[in-house]
Design goal:
The protein is mainly α and 338 residues long. Helix content is 73%, strand content 0%.
């Protein structure tokens, strides 16, 4: 139900403020536990939120938790996406140069296209391919949640979203460990390594971790490239909202989601330096907390009985998209960058 932006499945539960408290208390406790584990052991916060949410999945049977879980998985998600805009400026993107920028755009587009093609070959529809390919191409779990919200439950089910979240977290963690070794093996410069890592690793935290594990210079380049991919989340969501088929009823689909507009507005404001550093820092922390809470709530509400129905095929889509993104990023780094 986290992806039910347009009321495809159910209206937002009606409840007083007290009705939201039980569900929000569970989400808060789970997210705080995920944050503690992430800080203590250096594990990805998104992955820890997902695993703890899945461990608490049995609580979804309690209807008293529904309003709070729905609020966390919908409203907190949308506002978290808006606040992601404070991470980037248009100046950072322009500093990469036109060749690098075009390469990033091409990698994102071709990775999403590969996800759609592989998904269709395996018997899924274009919506699932867009969900999986977009998560790989842009910013991992955050993109998966945003795309699922835009697609709607009729086109990307809760079970599919959870599978993508599981697969993307595992793939991103694996990429963070293995991709820097490839860069060292090829004796890549900081510029080339930073571009390759930033253009191919799924989640923001893992991309930056891999970049700075290579060198400080590579980490800085990886940050700019990765944030450029994050910036492409908004236009991709807009394209999906406008052009993806809106079900079988023939009704006109909704326009561009408000959180896409908010993302662009904050990025533009940040580009002019109008957001104080301390405010931007707090906004990033709040965005991370909101997205982690949304992942926790989504995992709690996930219909686990459906997760194994499709077998390993959904994960194959993620793996194929990841290999395409890595090959394209490596090729661009070797032949177009520097």
């Amino acid at each position: 139900m986290a992806a039910d932006l347009y009321g495809d499945i159910e209206p937002s539960p009606r409840a007083t403020w007290r009705g939201y408290l039980p569900g929000l208390a569970i989400v808060t406790a789970g997210t705080l536990a995920a944050g503690f584990i992430s800080d203590r052991y250096g594990a990805p916060l998104t992955l820890m939120s997902l695993l703890i949410g899945l461990a608490l999945n049995f609580l979804s049977a309690d209807s008293r938790l529904t309003p709070g879980l729905a609020f966390a998985s919908r409203s907190l998600l949308r506002w978290g996406i808006v606040l992601v805009g404070v991470r980037i400026t248009f100046g950072q993107i322009a500093a990469l140069g036109p060749a690098a920028l075009l390469a990033v755009v091409a990698i994102v587009a071709l990775t999403i296209g590969a996800g759609i093609l592989v998904a269709r070959r395996l018997g899924f529809d274009s919506a699932f391919g867009t969900l999986a390919g977009g998560a790989v191409a842009i910013c991992g779990a955050s993109a998966a949640m945003a795309l699922a919200t835009t697609l709607g439950e009729r086109r990307a089910s809760q079970a599919q979203l959870t599978l993508v979240l599981v697969g993307i977290s595992a793939a991103s963690a694996l990429a963070m460990v293995t991709y820097p070794f490839v860069a060292h093996w090829l004796h890549m410069s900081d510029l080339k390594a930073g571009f390759m890592l930033g253009a191919s690793i799924h989640d923001v935290a893992q991309a930056l971790g891999a970049g700075y594990s290579y060198s400080d210079g590579a980490g800085q380049i990886a940050a700019i490239v990765k944030l450029t991919r994050v910036a492409l989340l908004a236009p991709v969501l807009a394209i999906v909202a406008m052009f993806l088929p809106k079900g079988t009823s023939g009704a006109k689909g909704p326009g561009i989601p408000w959180f896409v507009v908010g993302f662009f507005v904050l990025a533009g404001i940040n580009s002019f330096g109008l957001i104080p550093a301390i405010a931007a820092g707090w906004a990033e922390k709040i965005a991370a907390a909101m997205l982690a809470a949304a992942v926790t709530a989504t995992a709690i509400r996930s219909p686990l009985a459906q997760l194994t129905a499709a077998g390993p095929r959904p994960l194959v889509v993620i793996l194929a998209s990841s290999l395409v993104a890595f090959a394209l990023a490596l090729g661009a780094a070797m032949f177009l960058i520097g």
